[in-house]
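Q: Entry one of two.
A:
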Amino acid sequence: MGKSKVLIVGGTGYIGRRIVRASLAHGHETYIVQRPELGLQIEKLQILLSFKKLGAHLIQASFSDHGSLVDAVKQVDVVISAVSGVHFRSHSILLQLKLIEAIKEAGNVKRFLPSEFGLDPARMGHALEPGRVTFDDKMTVRKAIEEANIPYTYISANLFAGYFAGSLSQMGSFVPPRDKVHLFGDGNLKAVFMDEDNVATYTIKAIDDSRTLNKTLYLRPPENILSQRELIGIWEKLIGKELDKTYISAEEFLTTLKGLDYKLQVGIGHFYHIFYEGCLTDFEIGEEGEEASELYPEVNYIRMDEYLKIYV
């Protein structure tokens, strides 16, 4: 069997553009939706044109034009959605319901990967308001996929390093502090930090793999399972300096959270489950899932000591 033809929706976004590059690098005939709603966003247009130069095909389609989505889907074997689910950008998760209708009508897609790439929403039914909207919307999409009998793979990529490792998981910054650092609780609960290019690589490797069909692929490479305290220790070693540490109790965190803008509450509320509950590592992967680094040991994933060197 040849490599699948891949359609990527959201190919100019934070994770989407990395998935495009990974798809091309792994030899897949790669198609990217070019939405007319792009308007005057010239940076996104230039990203699309740069991919076209690399061999990707651009397909005009819109969520407001069902026929165009069906036509786009009919040209490929696999559809990967990377539409934004981040509230301080644009929360577009439920737009995928229109994409699902197109996939259902087209009838030819052998695998659909919806926009998840974070915490496993199936394990977040207890999440705090208002942040639970992210997980509720993703579960609405999952329900539609499964009711339509569309073959799927869900990607649980845990924490993007650009958001959580570079900042040492500090709120309000994406660069590591050099003097003072805040820890959530005692800082000892484990999380999983992923280089975004590795996320894209694992995603593309999964699309033609029968082992990931109708399963969740968890990205939990063992050397990137770290506590916040361990992550800070890596940074301290790199800069040869110990940081002053302030510990934030769960009560203090929740009090601060309530005073924030709604969009910030949605995103930062997830910190509570990650760093005070340890929701990323407090379970064993069962028969419903697979772990990426075990399936694809040939991927030399980026460890966080290597990742943080660029910030020194």
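Q: Entry two of two.
A:
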Amino acid sequence: MIARKNMGRASPMLLVLLALGFFFATYNLLTLVIQYKDSSAGLRSGISDPVTGMPANSWKLGKSNLKFHVALTATDAPYSQWQCRIMYYWYKKMKSMPGSDMGKFTRVLHSGKGDHLMDEIPTFVVDPLPEGLDRGYIVLNRPWAFVQWLEKATIEEEYILMAEPDHIFANPLPNLAHGDNPAGFPFFYIKPTEHQKIVRKFYPEEKGPVTDVDPIGNSPVIIKKSLLEEIAPTWVNVSLRMKDDPETDKAFGWVLEMYAYAVASALHGVRHILRKDFMLQPPWDLAVGKRFIIHYTYGCDYNMKGELTYGTIGEWRFDKRSYLSGPPPKNLTLPPPGVPESVVRLVKMVNEATANIPGWDSLNSG
């Protein structure tokens, strides 16, 4: 169901809603980051053992050694478009490198209509949720997008990587899944055991202990297509039920849909291999090393001495939210001396992509 192309501009009201949405998202990030400073200390100092959790008997299955389809859910907003272009550039560059198990790529566009990137990025258009159902929480469209895509698209690979626009492949990514056990990234702020009362509303005691709910979101996750086909409809339902419950909505906030995926997986008896080398998140993770994906969700603010000024706009900064209505310019200024290698690498990778993507300025102007 590839939809028609559309060159329309985003309405002023949409930009206002986006700005409000990102204000609340930024607020949530600021409250989470205080915890991240302490909990990620081990990650910043290096990864001695990247596997933090392995379901029973998974080692006996061996590595999957099968290609996975890269599925990127997105909207047609300029903010999403420029991130998708950078992400797709690095996918193409890493796909054929030694160690990669990447297969084909699809941007699952949940805007209900095509956009001007249809010819540049392989795209499958699906419908958003009915108007008002997401209540301004746009990521509720993600599970619904996967349900539609899985039902209607032809997907050759047996495995799927669920990815997001603000992911950059820093190293060739192998298939980290083992048979029926998907691989996921453990998020420090997804803590099912600390929210047992709420989790039990959606994951009853007869299903098992709360510890069976993995500390993950849906992305990044590499999972068998057949398993995702089972989980996705439950993921939709749990997401909507969580959003309809005021206590759950308040407790989980911007990460509600992540909890919904974790609960939906547990309801189907699916446990994830927890790989802390799956992803890094500057500025808190200081080095890229052998990790596979750079997730640039946090703003990077520094003074000219190379000191982090998180929560205060720095003399030097890179924050994706600075570019809500259009793309970052080419050739961003590199960080000052003393800034961690992960941040320097991120900016260099953004600069390389923008320098080599045809029509960067013109196609991203609306």
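A: Comment on entry two: Residues 12-39 form the longest helix (28 residues). Confidence is low (pLDDT under 50) at residues 1-10, 13-45.
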